[in-house]
Design brief:
Mean pLDDT: 97
Strand content: 15-25%
Order of helices and strands: EHEHEHEHEHEHEHEHH
Radius of gyration: 17 Å
Low-confidence stretches: none
Helix content: 40-55%
Shape: globular
Largest sheet: 8 strands, parallel
Number of strands: 8
Bound molecules: nickel (II) ion
Length: 252
């Protein structure tokens, strides 16, 4: 399996070697690490150069766009010459924490979509309480990049709309939470061919480790929950979602 969105550089309770060993021991053989802060980009280049099975994404998280600088565009273009840069991400809109700079969020989001289009890379989308604006901006500005709705948090209706538009949905630990009725419904409803597994480690730890720090090894609990909701085997979930991840991120 592939953990398609995992901030392993932010996990505090384990070393990188331990994180990767635990992942392998639990059937996760590739990890894709998104950028959030500007300084992440250097860290991610180090990680992808050091570890064979670690891939990276470059970009600035919507909550961090005040630190955006147009010089990042050239920097990202340069770094993206490395074939282990699998996407531009995580980018998007977050109206949950602070609504005071929504316009700047939109502006930087659009710049990063255009950059992804130019680099022919997929976009890994952070959308928190901004479903409509996120969807509309992608539809208006994205020209050819594959779209992943990371940590999908919308309704079944919105999920169907995203699938219809060709987007992939990243499903993480939330689906294992007992009270996550909406998320369970989504995981059951959308075609398996559109689902990607992700932990968003160190956040959103699945049951039975909810409350502790998350890590890529826990992808298996997400796969198990999706399998049980869809009444199929965990192996089928693993097989299909791994193929999906390879296709969307263009990795072997
Ligand atoms: Ni994230």
């Amino acid at each position: 399996m592939i953990d398609t969105h995992s901030h392993i550089n932010m996990i505090e309770s384990l070393s990188l070697d331990e994180i990767i060993k635990n992942a392998f021991d639990n059937g996760i053989d590739k990890i894709i690490v998104p950028s959030a802060y500007p300084a992440d980009m250097e860290n991610i280049m180090d990680l992808v150069n050091k570890y064979d099975n670690v891939y990276g994404m470059l970009g600035i998280h919507p909550s961090e766009v005040k630190s955006w600088d147009d010089s990042f565009i050239e920097k990202i273009k340069n770094y993206a010459k490395n074939s282990k840069i699998a996407a531009i991400g995580e980018i998007g809109l977050d109206y949950y924490w602070d609504k005071s700079f929504n316009d700047l969020q939109k502006e930087v989001f659009i710049k990063q979509i255009k950059l992804a289009n130019e680099l022919n890379l997929p976009i890994d989308i952070h959308d928190r309480e901004a479903h409509k604006d996120t969807y509309d901006i992608i539809q208006e500005h994205n020209n050819g990049s594959k779209v992943i709705m990371h940590c999908f948090s919308g309704s079944v209706e919105f999920a169907r709309e995203c699938v219809k538009a060709g987007f992939y949905l990243g499903i993480g630990g939330v689906v294992t939470f007992k009270n996550a009725v909406k998320m369970k419904e989504v995981a059951k409803d959308v075609p398996l061919e559109k689902i990607l597994l992700e932990t968003d480690a160190p956040y959103l730890t699945p049951v039975p480790f909810r409350g502790k720090e998350n890590q890529p090894a826990y992808v298996k609990y997400i796969a198990e929950e999706i399998a049980s909701l869809r009444e199929i085997t965990k192996e089928e979930v693993a097989l299909v979602t791994t193929e999906n991840a390879k296709t969307v991120f263009n990795i072997k």
